[in-house]
Amino acid sequence: MDKSDRISVCVVVINAPPDYSGGALQAITLCKKLCRKTNLFVVTSRSRGQAKRHKISNIQVTRLKYVTKKARVAIVSKLMFNLNLFCFLIKQRKNYDIIYCIGGGFILVPSVIVAKAMRKKVCVKLTRAGQRGDDPSAIKQNSVGWLTFQALKRTDAIICISQQLFDICKENQLDIDKLHRIPNGVDTKLFKPVAKAQKNRMRRELKIPIDSWIVSFAGGIIKRKGIDLMLEAISNVVVHYPKLLFIVIGPAIVGSEQYLSRIKRIIDTKNLHNNVLFTGHLEFNQARKYLQASDIYVHSSYAEGLPNSVMEAMACGLPCVAADIPPLRELITPNENGFLFSLKQVNEFQQKILQLLKDKTLLVKLGQKARKTIVEKYDIENVAEQYCGLFQKLLHMG
Question: Rg for the chain (alpha carbons), in Å?
């Protein structure tokens, strides 16, 4: 397809790499695929020291100043960013047909206003339900939620990455014809199982034990992720497997200092210093290697959208032991491609881990089924095709 015939898309997202978040990584993963069939550019926030314009994998990224995330000036920061975004979208109006907002937060208001004024199409992807999420019920609870909700109602399409988000949208009486179920996607050519010899090489490269069981979790260190629950479970598992290593793949998130202190106290109290490794922030490929070098993946979040890390671990052929919350029920069928446990039952959590450690046949079987689930339902190529189909549909609407 000639570039002049392609749909042009302006992607608006509050965070983009190197900023750490699952949403930021998913945004770039999708954009890499979409830019093959669309003319696409990204506008996002800029922190101190970041360039105003740069490229990520040949994707043009423009960063607008976002003063700070500190609570006392958060409103001012959001207003300034929205004003900058409004001006940017006006100036770039000839360079896009569709505004695609990732996240149903404050970026929606200027995006919808400009789209309607300039007769462009605008769609939004909702990313997480619950407290501090961006589902309609959560939006209404924000200080200017009524305004954001009105903007949400006036979008041309609302993309729900999970059935939970879809159902909440229906409960809030949003136009069902505007609702679309398109999940997050995984590059299954990158995230894939590796042979034992390659896994051992990876472990040597990463300086982790070759002869130990490796249990991993990937995500930011924040209370919502339930890392304290993981440590409680691991502390009981290592009684039976003293050489087991639990790896937390990801950084501590700004504002979670108290929670990080709590994590450190648990490690001290349970004497887990030799059984826990925190990698800190890692480049994308390095984080992937830690997953591929692992044996089991665990995830005990209290709230999620459709977690990239779980999907990536499953694509790597890892059996997952995850919290029994709505989005994870979409990914994991208990005893078929992984295990679910109640967040109120730490004992159940540790028993599921032990069950996998004791039964290698089961571990391999669940891992293979996990990989099959992601390849068949969540491959990024298929997800990108769904987006391209939606964009075409939007342009042909009256």
Answer: 21
- CATH of 196-377 given 3.40.640.10, 3.40.1110.10, 3.40.50.2000, 1.10.472.20: 3.40.50.2000
pTM above 0.90, yes or no: yes
Q: Which CATH number fits domain 3-185+379-395: 3.10.20.740, 3.40.50.720, 3.40.50.2000, 1.10.3720.10?
A: 3.40.50.2000
Number of Cβ atoms within 10 Å of the Cβ of 3: 8
* Cα–Cα dist 25/344, whole Å: 30
DSSP letters for 287-347: HHHHHHT-SEEEE--SS-SS-HHHHHHHHTT--EEEE--HHHHHH--BTTTEEEE-TT-HH
Domain ranges of the chain: 3-185+379-395, 196-377
Around Cβ 208, how many Cβ atoms within 10 Å?
Answer: 18
Nearest to 185 by CA among 370, 30, 24, 28: 30
User: 214 in helix, strand or coil?
Assistant: strand
> Whole-angstrom Cα distance, residue 33 to residue 182?
15
Distances (CA, A) of 5 to 8, 38, 39, 125, 175: 9, 9, 9, 25, 31
Assigned token pair, 168:
């909440």
Tens digit of each residue's pLDDT, the chain (398 residues): 456 679 999 999 988 877 767 788 899 999 999 999 999 999 999 887 888 999 998 899 999 987 555 544 567 788 889 999 999 999 999 999 999 999 988 899 999 999 999 999 999 999 999 878 899 999 998 777 899 999 999 999 999 999 999 999 999 999 999 999 999 999 999 999 999 999 999 999 999 999 999 999 999 999 999 999 999 999 999 999 999 999 999 998 877 889 999 999 999 999 999 999 999 989 889 999 999 999 999 999 998 989 999 999 999 999 999 999 999 999 999 999 999 999 989 999 999 999 999 999 999 999 999 999 999 999 999 999 999 999 999 998 86
Long-range pairs for 33-38 at CB < 8 Å and ≥24 separation? 33/185, 33/380, 33/381, 33/383, 33/384, 34/9, 34/384, 34/387, 34/388, 35/59, 36/384, 37/1, 37/6, 37/7, 37/384, 37/388, 38/6, 38/7, 38/8, 38/9, 38/388, 38/391
